[in-house]
Design goal:
7-stranded mixed β-sheet; Spermidine Synthase, Chain: A, domain 2; homotetramer; disordered N terminus
């Protein structure tokens, strides 16, 4: 039994965000900083009263000041920490620069390439979302390419230790879905080093179970070691799923102490992720609706 | 970066539920089965298209068919499993019978007393929410008292191994708040056996951090061993917090294997909780907003 | 300048109703009396806190206790009063019986036939919406046929003095739209007496100007005398438009005094419509968006 | 019976506007141009997809490009036209300049004084709402004073032919309510010429019947001739009420032809108001909920 003060909807400007087909979230806006349209999507940068500054693409919150660390640390660090010495890292997507920021925290990294298709998102993030990128765009080890991630993966001659897929959701569109097929994961595998590791965000297994299961099967088609985990992200309205595909290193084998040691050795400072969090993520059940 | 199909709000009958002061959730209703008012609250039993049959009190979803197991298993089993042999259990609140159902799964239990103030909730749950109580109301080891939980705790001569506080949220009202003070926890401690353990649901540390911190401090005032954990409950729109106060047994000391063994020995079958889940809950960070 | 107390959204069960493509209305529900699906549509009978008992079809409010008289009196009486002696009246649609109720108020009427396709709407209205039909279903002068209105119009050998089209909106679907074409109005004209008059509700000229203009043109194709008027209906969220097509009698020619005399002679008692209202309806501008 | 295409809520940025205690309106925003707070209120200037550029104060739409002419013409012209030769006009409120614009259309006017308390509304309207004020702020016959309207009325030595009260709603607050009492109307009467006429907007008689009736009684306490009328304003979500108090001239006595002649003689061009509209407004019933 639970019960909270019946709070009024604070009226005026709000964002109505779809959480799933028949669940939506209403969030109060205090200020709208930018509204524009790129070639690919509607881009809005707003202040939400409860979540701070936020990037909103096509009506969906991508990152907010108060909880983006939960998403980005959970996306980046389990894979990065599992690899014993990640030097070269590729990020597909991640336009606001926060994924790049987390990757660059690892002192082992010599080169981090971020490939995002939408230049406007990158530009506006530089201008308005300093709290999110924290200057990562200007780190000499980082490189931002405005390009189609799929093409980049097909053509590059480079090899990467870690690849992070910070993509639009698999149920977003047919184009998005292409980046969640075993065909694509084979190409990812081809440009990973022989002990390379990849991670993809994978939407919501609770609300979109069928799509999620297909993505999971695709990763399993290609990688010998596959691990799933999920983390509630307040401003998304759901627990976001992630899937790791790895050639040799298994994130489940890492102890709490090993994780903490690697983070310390690499000078990684975090707010959400650490050795204990790693253990939690590897053990928390994947959310699914109870069969009725 | 994430992106989902821009889904329309399915129009018609919906529930608008406050998640916090300035965040709300809209959920589509397929059918309304009961609407009434007891002496204490508005009671609605509805079918939600995405969550199945649900109990709604004063506009707040309490339990739904598709995710109540996440809440109730997380509330009950960490404390129950930590106690080596829980025979007598007290539940305050829990009117729909699902907490009682989980308690009675432990074959060690000889007597489980559930004290809820609202007879109408119990009656309607018996009639409409068979999927939630699963007959627990009719188990000979269970006993349901319609009474004020606070008074019961003050007057009873019984002693309990485990006490489960399935109460309205601490920020709900002054009356609710009384059941989250150190004064009340002292009384709880008095009716626990010398190795007794209690657990309370504690609302949301993310959205109501100040209130949560006071409750946590109150538990710490009384119990030598205090453990916190939180679990996303989809139909609540947030991760629900729980706090355990224990006199002797520490839930963090249990290994995955010990948890699984105890569940097996006691014939406890679950859908969400097990040894791995226990480890996850004990290690997952408590959600708080990032300092801005 | 205007300003009202910032009222909270009363949370819990609500209806979200589309007013147009990008405007919606939220109305608080106090009780749900019936929810079902007929062969044609979802049917809900609810109590709205501000509007009383209401019939809702496919998520759209059709009639509510507190304002249905505004819609039904405005639909029925201008045409009925304009005809000097309406004896035989045909209603297409109007399942909840309120249009029939208004027609039967005219003591000149000897026979009123109502043709509605959805038997379930009629049945549930009889059971739950006594305040709307006021027993009109049981008047010996009335006759309710469950049939396709279009087919009825094509096949009937009867001739009518007044025909009232209480149909779904013209922008609802292709099927609905068929009942707003000049082909259909020709058939209507064929079964009108030589001084017959018809009226149709016509949705919203403000929000759906293009569709409205086509309907208007279709009526003009067939009838020598065409008059438009519109009336705000609170629970619809807009001013509802009506179009009269007449063979001989012109509603604009009636004076206030003549209207009042006819109503008195025929023993018609109303709450909204009278001689003054008639003058207002014939003179109020048709709502259209200002050209930007 | 009516039925429209079940349109999805267009998600993303919206305004949720209270229409009454338990009815709300959701309107899609395409762009936010300004958000600020003055000493008195939150001020937002937005583009609404269906209504164009709009002024929003404390979450309530005041004027939109596509329908403000309906409100402002209905507020200004019935009173102005009823007076045979309005030379000096006082406006209390009306910060966005549209009321002033309508007043100045009458070529009889030599001086129009507008008194608004909120300088920021006036400034931002000058900057962003050219389509609303149409340059009226720069007309040499107009004068804008930033001052408390109540104090101005008490202290001024001027006498006016017409006074227009474009105030916040009577149910907005106690301060607002003061400007709707017989005490205040007496002061208004004192500064009217001996054949002077005043008009006030009066909120919604449908949704706030009790408050409306008090305001009406207050006007009747002071003026020998009192006329009420109401007009649906789409972006308000309701029919807005107006009350005229007059010392000698009666708006109901004007014929359609006289109104049209006066408008023509004074070179007044309008989009909504004319002789026919005047007749409609004087005859349309005042909206009230049917007694249940």
């Amino acid at each position: 039994m639970r019960h909270i003060v019946t709070s009024p909807i604070v009226l005026g400007l709000v964002v109505i965000q779809p959480v799933s087909y028949e669940t939506h979230m209403i969030m109060k806006i205090s200020r709208v900083l930018q509204q524009t349209r790129s070639q690919y999507q509607n881009i809005e940068i707003v202040e939400l009263t409860e979540y701070g500054r936020a990037l909103v693409l096509d009506g969906l919150v991508q990152s907010t000041e108060v909880d983006e660390h939960i998403y980005h640390e959970s996306l980046v660090h389990p894979a990065m920490t599992t690899h014993p010495e990640p030097k070269k890292v590729l990020i597909i997507g991640g336009g606001e620069g926060a994924t790049l920021r987390e990757v660059l925290k690892h002192s082992t990294v010599r080169e981090a390439v971020m490939v995002d298709i939408d230049e406007k998102v990158v530009e506006l993030s530089k201008q308005y979302l300093q709290e999110l990128h924290k200057g990562s765009f200007y780190d000499p080890r980082g490189r931002v390419l405005i390009a189609d991630g799929k093409e980049y993966v097909e053509k590059t001659q480079e090899r990467y230790d870690v690849i992070i897929l910070d993509l639009t959701d698999p149920y977003a569109s047919e184009i998005a879905y292409e980046l969640y097929t075993s065909q694509f994961y084979k190409k990812i595998s081809n440009i990973l080093t022989e002990d390379g590791i990849m991670v993809t965000q994978a939407g919501s297994s609770f609300y979109y179970e069928n799509v999620y299961d297909k993505v999971l099967a695709s990763v399993r088609d290609v990688f010998p070691i596959v691990r799933e985990y999920n983390v509630w992200v307040p401003s998304f309205g759901y627990a976001c799923n992630f899937i790791i595909g790895s050639k040799r290193h298994d994130p489940e084998k890492l102890t709490r102490e090993e994780v903490d040691k690697r983070l310390k050795d690499r000078n990684v400072e975090t707010r959400f992720y650490n050795g204990r969090t790693h253990i939690a993520l590897m053990n928390l059940p994947i959310y699914r609706k109870a069969r009725r």
